[in-house]
Amino acid sequence: MKKYLSIVAALLFATTTMFAQGKIGGKVYFDYSYNKDNSVTNSFEIRRVYFSYSKALTKNISYKFTTDVGRFNTGKDNRLSAYLKIAALSWKTKYGKFVFGLQGLNMFNVEEHNWGFRFIEKAPMDKNHFASSADLGIGYFLKLAKKLNLSAMITNGGGYKKMESDNYKKYSLQLLYGDAKISKGGFNVGASASFEGFDKGTVSGTTTVFGGFAAYSTGKIRFGGEYDLMNQSGYDVTKSIISVFADVKFSKIVEAFARVDLFDPNTSVDNDGNTYIVGGLNFVPAKGFSIAPNVKITSPQSGNSSTTFAANFEFKI
User: Fold this and answer.
1) Which of 76, 124, 196, 298 lies deepest, with the highest CB count within 10 Å?
2) Burial of 83 (0-12, 13-18, 19+ CB in 10 A)
């Protein structure tokens, strides 16, 4: 018995030592919402639970794993399920950085940081399904100048929850000038684009996504916007997004935020778009803990508006 206890203790010690040498992180998105127009008018929900571990193998090689927990929405099966979101190895060379595996996509990662409130609402491209936040493939990242960065990726195109289902690959590019993260001050301007072929029965073509963005922050005031287009040539459909946001910090604990999205699911059709507005306050009583009472309003050009009152929480380490 002592022998087995010694083995278990040794394994626990080895595991603890291994994790201590790396970096552990985690986030939880939790909320309460009320909407009198929904079938369930008020509810508590866990939107996301992330757990990550990263470690440097050498000065130039490192890896990262991130799990993502969310609702498994298939028919009547709505359980919380875990997905692997990131499983990537990064290799820095004098020619640039190469990333292999399941990794964050370069289509709206900067815009998500610009907005700064992912626990309250997704970035516009993510919310309207213009692109996935992560995908499986190979990425290349190059600093062209002090504030000018280029990234190029070849991925499956289905995102991190789906396996490859066709022979087409997604090619995505991003050009960024400025700071990728501006929460403490700075600016950025840039563009992203992706191309992927498809063949669905009798319809074939190319899905093309383009996005342009800009944002500025003094540390106390942050504002910005983006313009996104998605075209599916086989269906001859073009979708568009115009989004603007602003955030004002009154102190280290309290800030106010607002965002307006104009989404058009088919630019060739009149009166089929909608306006989405989210605004509220964010309280940060301690590092890694946020409470954000807010209101979300969806106003279609044709039909009735819908209003959701919510309180979103974020816990992170």
Assistant:
1) 124
2) middle
Strands 96-104 and 306-316: unpaired
CATH 2.40.160.10 fits 22-316, yes or no: yes
Burial of 28 from C-beta contacts in 10 A (0-12 / 13-18 / 19+)? middle
The residue assigned the tokens 């939880």 is 28
Q: Within 13 A of 6's CA, how many CA atoms are on the CB side?
A: 3
Two tokens at 46? 């866990």
Angle at alpha carbon of residue 128, lines to 125 and 134, rounded to 5°: 50
Residues 181 and 112: their CA atoms lie apart, in Å, by: 9
pLDDT tens for each residue of 258-307: 999 999 999 999 999 999 999 999 999 999 999 999 999 999 999 899 99
- Whole-model pTM? 0.90
Cα–Cα distance measured from residue 49 to residue 67, given in angstroms and rounded to the nearest whole number: 8
Widest distance between CA atoms in the chain: 76
Chain-centre distance of CA 237, in angstroms? 25
Instruction: Extract the tokens encoding 187.
Output: 């600016």
Bridge partners for 261 per DSSP: 243, 276
Whose structure tokens read 């989404």? 263
The three-state secondary structure class of 25 is: strand
Q: Where are the domains of the chain?
A: 22-316
